[in-house]
Specification:
This protein is an alpha/beta fold. It has 15 helices and 17 strands. It is 38% helix and 24% strand.
């Protein structure tokens, strides 16, 4: 039995699934554009999807909005205006909500960025990945070094005082010098947030079938440590495994995920986690993954591809998989507040993790040690076995 004294914060995620070209390392639900993006039909489907889900979140205020993909910046400002207007007409969105749009340098145009800012989008996340043309070509990206730099400059010029640059390391044939150069260029462009993470080869991707030559583990670790030092010296504090931010510019939307907050997911393949205080349940949902199937079924029961009510056994692992990504860990009181369960549910693995040096624990706070962060998979396995 779950016992919620109050509901966790609620975020909104909207998935726009099209890209100019599918990258060979990408395992996200993204689809190459064949002719043109069906903007109007898709926005209409997203709003039908929302209307079907509204009873799950009656009376709740949305604290952040994230429009991801795919490449959402492929959508015109007019289509995004229709989307945001429809969301605002149907939802209570906090006046100071962080509203993020993902964008790729290959689709960056100053006029579009200015219009996005005028729509109330107040944060961009730009998928740079690297500033070296050979690395970008190996990753199958459609932009080059110049476009990557220009995208950040356009963001500043368009009035975005809050934006993220996405960088990857341990790329095909990348050297530590090149990785450090990527970080240095990103810092010089003065974003408020930098995501810095290692390229991983995922199943069901072209890279998995034909793996590129990647730096070995020792070189990857050297790149990570050097990059972290560069970011720290430039005033970007690491607050999550792969997230670094200037003071007060942590991504509010992602922090809500990591603190096991609620989120409503709209669009093809979007996921949701919703707490219901009246039923004392936590439910996970996923929408139809294929764009056409989603548009055909949005707003009906068939639009939901899967639905699962979490059990007590699920809760400990699911909470810790998120919260232990944060450098500061979590306040002990957050566990019962966001799971409806007492912390004693996971006391055994907490004790083992503390004894093995993977966790530090006080009465008020639980956080991973540096060792715990490096061996996060080993740490989480303790909660799988709980």
């Amino acid at each position: 039995m779950f016992q919620f004294a109050a509901l966790p914060p609620l975020s909104l995620y909207v998935h726009l699934p099209w890209c100019v070209r599918k990258c060979p390392y990408c395992d996200f639900n993204s689809h190459a554009v064949k002719n043109t993006v069906p903007e109007a039909a898709y926005v209409d489907a997203v709003l039908r999807d929302l209307e079907h889900d509204l009873p799950r979140i009656w009376g709740r205020r949305v604290m952040s909005v994230f429009i991801g993909g795919g490449t959402p910046s492929l959508f015109s400002p007019e289509a995004l205006d229709q989307l945001l207007s429809g969301l605002r007409a149907r939802l209570s969105i906090h006046a100071d909500a962080e509203i993020t749009l993902e964008a790729n340098p290959g689709t960056a145009e100053q006029e579009k960025f200015c219009e996005y800012r005028a729509l109330g989008i107040n944060r961009l996340s730009i998928g740079v990945q690297s500033f070296h043309d050979n690395a970008l070509q190996a990753l199958g990206r459609i932009h080059g070094r110049g476009e990557a730099i220009r995208a950040a400059e356009i963001a500043h010029a368009a009035g975005f005082d809050n934006f993220n640059l996405d960088l990857m390391f341990a790329l095909p044939n990348q050297t530590p010098t090149q990785a450090a150069d990527d970080v240095a260029i990103a810092i010089d462009l003065e974003p408020t947030h930098i995501s810095y993470y290692q390229l991983t080869v995922e199943p069901n991707t072209p890279f998995y079938g034909q793996p590129p030559v990647l730096p070995n583990n020792d070189l990857a670790w050297q790149m990570q440590q050097t990059g972290q030092q560069q970011l720290a010296e430039a005033g970007y504090a690491q607050y999550e495994v792969s997230a670094y931010a200037k003071a007060k510019y942590q991504c509010a939307h992602n922090v809500n995920y990591w603190q096991f907050g609620d989120y409503l997911g709209l669009g093809a393949g979007a996921h949701a986690k919703i707490t219901d205080a009246s039923q004392q349940t936590i439910t996970r949902l996923a929408k139809q993954r294929q764009p056409q199937a989603f548009m055909d079924t949005a707003g009906t029961a068939q639009g939901i591809q899967s639905e699962r009510v979490l059990t007590r056994k699920d809760i400990g692992l699911e909470f810790m998989m998120n919260a232990l990504r944060l450098n500061a860990g979590f306040e002990s009181a957050l566990f019962p507040a966001h799971t409806g369960q007492q912390l004693s549910l996971i006391n055994k693995p907490l004790c083992i993790a503390e004894e093995t040096g993977l966790l530090e624990r006080t009465v008020k706070q639980i956080r991973p040690t540096e060792k715990g962060h490096r061996f996060l998979d080993d740490l989480l396995m303790l909660f799988v076995e709980n």
